[in-house]
From TrEMBL:
Gene3D superfamilies, alphabetized: Carboxypeptidase-like, regulatory domain (2.60.40.1120), TonB-dependent receptor, beta-barrel domain (2.40.170.20), TonB-dependent receptor, plug domain (2.170.130.10)
Record's keyword annotation contains Iron: no
Entry's Gene Ontology cellular component terms: cell outer membrane
Keyword line: Cell outer membrane, Membrane, Transmembrane, Transmembrane helix
One Pfam family it belongs to: CarboxypepD_reg
Highest taxon of source: Bacteria
Protein name: Outer membrane protein beta-barrel domain-containing protein
PANTHER family named in the record: PLUG DOMAIN-CONTAINING PROTEIN, TONB-DEPENDENT RECEPTOR-LIKE BETA-BARREL DOMAIN-CONTAINING PROTEIN
Region (Disordered): 810-833
Domain Outer membrane protein beta-barrel, first and last residues per copy: 413-804
Compartments, record wording: Cell outer membrane
UniProt xrefs under InterPro entries: Beta-barrel_TonB_sf (IPR036942), CarboxyPept-like_regulatory (IPR008969), OMP_b-brl_3 (IPR041700), Plug_dom_sf (IPR037066)
């Protein structure tokens, strides 16, 4: 035993030593590269300033009558006594704007925004390198309609040329809701009940303030259920991304942006909610910020306690190699789930200088998810004669702890837009899953035979990441972006299975290092703007299943080009063309060859030989008045992932394996229109069409499917009168095919009402799936096994939420990205049912 402990300690020391060596090497490399680039940037101003001699910058911040920032406000710069616009820009999310490379002279600034009076700032004499306009306050337009005061309201859904922004803090339906509920209501987004998320029919990476989740789909769903919408400002849907982003995420990025703070002082918000469907559900949380002249502190926390049910019936038909039906399985089950989670986080911004800020952040999540299943299964032959039966009592408990921390340094090297940033991140993820199964096997002629199994699964991941980005303005308005990144992931999985006859212990270890660099060049002309990018990534992954000695060795180098073109015909008509190459790497769990029991008839097993998916994406977007959008996209995914069912030799169970097909083609057409019908009524309608042909060889069978046309339609309507707000959405999802899975049509109706209480309080009541029609019925066709599943979940419920704000409620924090986002997104992949 002592010798075993010594060997185990030696093994740990070996891994620790290697990790420390890697970290030191990466830091030395990064410091060397950063020093060279920084030296170049320090020398470069001589050339840049020579090119921009006699030119200056004008900057300012646009706010409303309550000193809240007005993102999206249009700022027009014109020369005095000249009606032609010299430069035009829009305010960023913090309300700030800046004009670069402005020739010295006299100017005037005009600020416009729908719902506010136009502001004119005249007699601006530009002689210095930077002219500060300070805060420009816009006064809201208002008028009386039948003695009701009506004010402009920012739309919930804001379509932009390169992304769709859903303003969660403006949505009545989001009040008191979880983020998972919100995700399922976003345009073009589908969320299955096990947490699988897709955008325009394609798998997508989910980020939260630039930090992607490492959880399995079930655990991710639980985390999003426990995250309150009161912490969320907006959600960005980005089907295309530039070379700056990690190459992972072939279907795009969904970025969940939390509420931030920016102004001085103390502010806090507390919220509490309760609801009921079949069972009760509760949530609460708080946000606190304190900001002074030299630093800012942010503390957030949320708590969730939900109880909900799921019901399902399924039939599986087993076929022989010659295509003849050989047996059938019929099963039904009901599960009751209890989910509790807490997610505290803390952040500190230190303003080293006016141009340099260092941010230190830490977050954690603690989850306890319990599931109880009662299931019954019958097996029949081809003549519908009962062969045998199985009853199952299943109890599972999942406890997970997630920790992450990072340091971010951002420096504005000059007033011309030259920036430098560096991120260092570390994440630790731990999950323990315990499952007890009590079986009763019997036939029509025999007494029940009892059996019991125990399954203990544990997983742990350590993720180290360092990245650096540089932004350099060039002559004639061009801009250059450069960046490097290196990451290391150590993943460990253990699986201990015990039944009446065997005890099986397996351990799987995986280690992956990715080194990357990118360059982006963009340029704006009178009507045309363009951007070209190239990203290079080298992947080195090694893994081993200890019990069998089976090893994984993946080493490959890839280039990922991207290009974006935007042509503005006039103020009303714009055309955008974008294309890029991306990759979807297998999750670490999907490389693990361990067999994991999901339920009485279904297992899951990873595939060590699984190849990464190479994704080629293109899209063409037409916009009219920033209200109407028509988007056509085409993607070709080589080696796309496909879930395939393999029958056991006695055809009493199936095993899910993720395989590579030859290719999948994704065709998508989106038509969207947002219109302010009146100042108190905003309407958004979205129509999506899909088709997904695919080809592959599965279990020795060559398959080609031309795919089926699918569509969905959504309408969102929001109303605002005085202290009252009303919002409802209706969604219809047509019959939908995703490779070998066909989901039947479904629809739902959601309704929300909100009442402001004074200037700081609010009370909202929401009803989700009012008609109780949002079900999940699908056919999974794996040729040798065809499974038809009908599922109903606890989707109809009513929730009431109260929130109250203290102190200065206008604060907003600087957004900090996470260098380890892509690695975190790949830890999931195993569904526990």
């Amino acid at each position: 035993m002592a010798d075993y402990k010594y060997k185990r300690l030696s093994c740990h020391m070996f891994y620790l030593t290697n990790n420390i060596k890697w970290i030191i090497q990466v830091i030395l490399k990064s410091v060397a590269v950063s020093s060279i680039l920084l030296l170049y940037l320090l020398i470069c101003p001589v050339n840049v300033l020579a090119q921009t001699a006699g030119k200056s910058s004008i900057e300012g911040t646009v706010v409303d009558d309550k000193n809240l920032p007005l993102p999206g406000a249009t700022v027009v710069l014109t020369k005095i006594n000249d009606s032609v616009a010299y430069k035009i820009t829009q305010c960023k999310i913090d309300g700030k704007f800046i004009f670069y490379n402005v020739v010295s002279g006299g100017y005037q600034v005009e600020v416009r925004m729908v719902g506010f009076k136009t502001l004119m700032k005249s007699n601006i004499q530009l002689v210095d390198t930077l002219y500060q306009l300070g805060s420009l306050k816009l006064s809201p337009e208002s008028k009386m309609l039948n003695e009701v005061l009506v004010k402009y309201r920012q739309p919930v859904i804001d379509r932009q040329i390169d992304k769709t922004v859903v303003n969660i803090d403006k949505s009545v339906l989001s009040v008191g809701a979880s983020v998972l509920e919100i995700m399922g209501k976003l345009p073009g987004v589908r969320v299955s009940q096990d947490g699988q998320i897709s955008l325009n029919g394609k798998s997508v990476s989910v980020f939260m303030d630039g930090k992607a989740s490492l959880l399995t789909p079930d655990a991710l769903a639980n985390l999003l259920r426990g995250m309150s919408s009161s912490d969320i400002q907006k959600i960005e849907l980005m089907p295309q991304s530039s070379a700056k982003y990690d190459a992972a995420g072939g279907g795009g990025v969904i970025n969940i942006i939390k509420k931030k703070n920016q102004d001085d002082g103390f502010s806090a918000n507390v919220n509490i909610g309760a609801g009921f469907g079949e069972y009760g559900r509760y949530n609460s949380g708080f946000n606190l910020s304190v900001k002074g002249s030299g630093s800012a502190l942010y503390i957030n926390s949320g708590f969730l306690s939900n109880k909900f049910f799921g019901k399902s019936t399924s039939s599986s038909d087993f076929y022989s190699k010659d295509g003849l039906l050989s047996s059938k399985l019929l099963s039904s089950d009901k599960n009751i789930n209890v989910d509790k989670s807490a997610s505290p986080s803390i952040g500190l911004d230190i303003f080293l200088t006016k141009q340099t800020t260092m941010s230190i952040s830490g977050s954690s999540s603690f989850q306890n998810f319990n599931k109880n299943i009662v299931a019954h299964t019958n097996r029949f032959n081809t003549n519908d004669l009962n062969l045998d039966n199985t009853d199952l009592l299943n109890n599972s408990d999942t406890k997970s702890k997630n920790y992450s921390g990072g340091i971010n340094l951002l420096s504005h090297l000059d007033t011309l837009g030259k920036d430098f940033s560096i991120n260092i991140d570390y994440s630790r993820y731990i999950s323990n899953f315990n499952q007890n199964n009590d079986y009763s096997f019997y036939t029509q002629q025999s007494e029940p035979t009892l059996d019991r199994t125990f399954l203990m699964q544990g997983s742990g991941l350590n993720i180290y990441s360092i990245k650096s980005d540089f932004y350099l303005p060039l002559r004639s308005g061009a801009r250059l972006e450069l960046g490097v990144k290196s990451s290391l992931v150590n993943a460990k999985y253990n699986n201990n299975y015990t039944d009446s006859s065997i005890v099986q212990n397996d351990n799987f270890n995986y280690r992956e290092n990715i080194d990357a660099g990118y360059v982006n060049w963009n340029k704006k002309f009178a009507k045309l703007s363009m951007q070209f990018g190239l990203r290079a990534e080298y992947t080195n992954g090694t893994g081993e299943l200890i019990s069998t000695g089976e090893k994984i060795n993946n080493k490959y180098f890839q280039l990922f080009p991207s290009a974006f073109f935007n042509y503005k015909f006039n103020d009303n008509n714009t055309l955008n063309l974008s294309t890029n190459k991306k990759v979807n790497r297998p999750t670490y769990a999907n490389l693990n060859p361990q067999i994991i029991i999901l339920n009485s008839t279904t297992n899951f097993q990873g595939t060590p030989s699984l190849l990464p998916v190479t994704a080629y994406n293109s899209s063409l977007t037409y916009s009219y008045k920033d209200e109407f959008y028509a988007i056509f996209s085409y993607s070709f995914w080589k080696n796309d992932f496909t879930n395939w069912l393999f029958p056991s030799s006695d055809q009493t169970s199936t095993t899910i394996k993720q395989l590579n097909n030859k290719y999948t083609k994704y065709l998508n057409l989106t038509i969207s229109n947002t219109k302010s019908i009146t100042k108190w009524w905003t309407n958004t309608n979205t129509l999506n069409f899909y088709k997904q042909p695919f080809k592959g060889v599965f279990n020795g069978i060559d398959i080609y499917d031309s795919g089926a046309f699918s569509f969905d339609v959504e309408t969102n309507n929001s109303f605002s009168f005085n202290q009252w707000s009303l919002e409802f959405t209706f969604t219809y999802e047509g019959r939908y095919q995703n490779i070998n899975r066909i989901t039947e049509p479904r629809y739902n109706l959601n309704l929300g009402l909100k009442r402001l209480i004074g200037n700081r309080g609010s009370f909202a009541i929401n009803c989700n799936d009012l008609l109780n029609t949002f079900k999940d019925n699908y056919l999974l066709n794996s040729v040798a096994v065809k499974t038809l599943s009908n599922n109903r979940y606890d989707t109809r419920y009513v929730r009431a939420t109260f929130s109250y704000q203290f102190g200065n409620t206008k604060n907003k924090k600087r957004d900090v990205s996470d260098g380890a986002a892509e690695e975190k997104n790949r830890s999931g992949g195993v569904k526990i049912k």
